[in-house]
Amino acid sequence: MLTARPVAALTSEQAAEAMTRAFEGYVVPVSVDGPGFERRFGAEHLDRYLSEVYTADGDLVGICLITRRGSTARIGGFGCTPAYRGVGVGRTLMERAIVRCVEAGATRVTLEVITSNAAAVRLYERLGFRIVRTLVGYRWERPAAAGPVPPSTPSAIDPARFARDVAAGLEYADEPPWQLAPETLAAAGPPRRAYRLGPAAALLSLTGTTAVLSAVHTEPAARRRGHGRALLAALREAFPGRRWTVPPLVPESDGAEFFRATGWVREELAQYEMVHGNV
Fold first, then answer.
1. How does DSSP assign 156-207, residue by residue?
2. Which of 38, 108, 120, 216 lies at a 20 to 30 A Cα distance from 196?
3. How far is the C-alpha of 19 from the C-alpha of 13, rounded, in Å?
4. Phi then psi for 111, rounded to 5 degrees?
5. Residue 180 near residue 249, CB atoms below 8 Å
């Protein structure tokens, strides 16, 4: 018999361990510790009481992590341990999650799924989800396309300031992916940092060998004048010797021209954003 416990009953380390085990052998395996779990899901507004961990006779079966803002709920992490895959458990747990979200007042439920995970895509479609857009990522490969390095050095700014600028530049109808929404960006903490050069700013996460670019924003009145290109060139100069990537969170139709023009190559890994309920 399956037993459900709210994530609120677990420590951060226990929740992180459950997530890591539930994504073992997945298309993109997950390995996270307690602090990493808190950084990610704190920023995404995890609902610890809607989110659940499932067990059967003491064995971990799976986890469902639900984030919420307003009347929208998002399945931010859903997986079953290897022994419980392909036997209908995932469908049962996802049906439960949808019902619980609706009972909690959600009129819209969203999720992301790797495009190559055909089995999961079919399951979600059978449960009433529909694909609304594709989210893609990039890697930077062409130093020759970078152009001259600007004479100025980017200055560090508060990620919350960056998020406010992003929010100010949005149109009413704009609906950024959950992880690129101003609400998520505003909660960014170390190792994420924000930098500004003129009217352009960027949010990125740095290690000794990698630089993950989360978002780039240019003030609306200054767009298409090379400010974003100049900022990225200056950041690469300031943090050399790193592999630069953009995670698969960018809507396929957004920024493709900019990334191509500035030397970025689209990655094969992509995600579908899917919606259940009102769009």
1. EE-HHHHHHHHHHT--TT----GGGSHHHHHT--TTEEEEEETTEEEEEEE-
2. 38
3. 10
4. -160, 165
5. yes
pLDDT, residue 1, reads 84
**Buried/exposed code over 113-129 (b: 16+ C-beta within 10 A; e: otherwise):** bbbebeebbebbeeeeb
Instruction: Please write the tens of the pLDDT for every residue from 130-164.
Output: 999 999 999 998 664 455 666 689 999 999 999 99
Q: Please state whether the peptide bond connecting residue 191 to the residue before it is cis, i.e. omega within 30 degrees of 0.
A: yes
- Nearest partner of 155 among 202, 204, 195, 191, judged by Cα: 195
Query: What pLDDT does residue 213 have?
Result: 97
Task: Read off the DSSP letter of residue 148.
Answer: P
d(CA 180, CA 34): 22
Q: Which region holds residue 16: left if phi is over 0, alpha if psi is between -120 and 50, else beta?
A: alpha
Whether 50 contacts 12, CB under 8 Å:
no
Predicted pLDDT of residue 231: 95
Q: Which domains does the chain have, with CATH numbers?
A: 2-106 (3.40.630.30), 137-274 (3.40.630.30)
- Calpha distance 86→18 (Å, rounded): 19
pLDDT (tens digit, 9 = 90+) per residue, 161-174?
Answer: 999 999 999 987 78
Rounded distance between C-alpha atoms, residue 123 and residue 133, angstroms: 17
The secondary structure of residue 251, as a DSSP letter, is E
Amino acid at 21: R
The partner residues of 195 in beta bridges, in order of sequence, read 156, 202
Is the pTM higher than 0.85? The answer reads yes
CA–CA distances in Å: residue 68 to residues 203, 236, 244: 23, 35, 31
Q: Of how many residues is the chain composed?
A: 279
